[in-house]
Amino acid sequence: MTLTRLFAATAATITLALPVAAFDVSEMSDDERSAFGAEVRAYLLENPQVIIEAVNLLEEQQAAAQGQADLTMVSDYADAIFDDGFSFVGGNPEGDITLVEFLDYKCGYCKRAHGEVAKLLETDGNIRLIVKEFPILGEQSMLASRFAISSLIVEGPDAYGALNDALMMSNGELSVPVMSRMANTLGFDADAIVAGMDSEEVARRIAETRALAQQLQITGTPTFVMHDEMLRGYLPYDQMMQIVDEKRG
């Protein structure tokens, strides 16, 4: 929290606390404004907790506004989020709760979230998972997404699921030769997957997901959409399970 935001939050709180007709700062003389500023400064120095209260209030208001905006965006783009016709669908396809994840294979927090999501799907058994490929962290991210999407097209969802696991568990370089070895080890046709990486269909899927992310104001990974709510950033299993219970409640 910067000093600028601290003072802005404090000023906003003081303004909101005063009656509308109490006074108009713009109508004060220079001397009156100076005296008023000195009084406010003296009060804040004597009561510094007011600044923290103001900041907390401002952050609560901003969070509420963001939450409402997210609800509206999820509703407006529901078809593209939950039924784009090309993203991988895992978990229980008939689940009563849908969890959508925008991910990047070079994202450390995505790797941490991967195990939490897997645990959630296994423990609950009634969650539909949709994976959105959103490579934003450089060339290796893009290569990995192209490889994964090509595997879904060429080999099907089981291959994609297995390679998604392998890519998320890998902490090394994600080059074409490395990923080809992964595919061969898992029993898939690596040459066919590589051949499809640069297809127009792969490029279209990535472009459509990127456009959707922009419309949803998603700038980082992982980002989740659960039912009607956007969850920005890494969440541990317990917190995800709590939100699932709330959505069902």
Helices, strands, pairings?
Blueprint: H1 3-17, H2 30-46, H3 49-76, H4 78-82, E1 88-91, E2 97-103, H5 108-124, E3 127-133, H6 139-155, H7 157-169, H8 176-185, H9 190-196, H10 200-215, E4 223-226, E5 229-232, H11 237-248
Parallel strand pairs: 2-3
Antiparallel strand pairs: 1-3, 2-4, 4-5
Helix pairs in contact: 1-3, 6-7, 6-9, 6-10, 8-9
Structure, described:
The two termini are 35 Å apart. It is built from eleven helices and five strands. It is elongated, with a radius of gyration of 24 Å. It has helices at 3-17, 30-46, 49-76, 78-82, 108-124, 139-155, 157-169, 176-185, 190-196, 200-215, 237-248, and strands at 88-91, 97-103, 127-133, 223-226, 229-232. It has two domains: 3-76, no CATH class; 79-248, Glutaredoxin. It is of the alpha+beta class. Helix 5 links the parallel strand 2 (97-103) and strand 3. Helix 1 (3-17) crosses helix 3 (49-76) and helix 8 packs across helix 9 (190-196). It has a five-stranded mixed β-sheet, with helices on both faces.
Could you give a quick summary of the protein structure above?
By secondary structure, the chain is of the alpha+beta class.
Task: From the structure above, extract its key features.
249 residues, alpha+beta, Glutaredoxin, 2 domains, 5-stranded mixed sheet, 11 helices, 5 strands
